[in-house]
Amino acid sequence: MRELGADLHTSWVIGDKPSDMQLAQNAGCRGVYVLTGQGVAGRDAVAPAVYVTAELTAAATRIASQVGPK
Question: What is the three-class DSSP state of 8?
Fold first, then answer.
């Protein structure tokens, strides 16, 4: 965060493990849970408020729709 000047409150984590979503929460980021790879097996362990999608492209679309020009 310091090295790259990242704003964690406007950053996203995309992952297919519940621990990825825990990382997002701990860092103050928003998370997108993808049901690829290990995603299906861990779905029940992800908080209901987390956006879940079947595909990475849908995750990218979700993020792009939430990010405006600076």
Answer: helix
The edge-to-edge listing of strands for the beta sheet with 12-15 is 12-15, 30-34, 51-53
pLDDT score recorded for residue 70 = 52
Q: What is each CA distance from 62 to 3, 14, 49, 56, in whole angstroms? A: 27, 11, 14, 10
User: Percentage of residues in the chain with pLDDT exceeding 90?
Assistant: 66
In a 3-state reduction of DSSP, which class is residue 13?
Answer: strand
Q: Which residue shows structure tokens 């493990």?
A: 17
Give the whole-angstrom CA distance, residue 7 versus residue 32: 17
* DSSP-H helix ranges across the chain: 18-27, 39-42, 56-66
Q: What is the pLDDT of residues 12-25, one digit of tens each?
A: 999 999 999 999 99
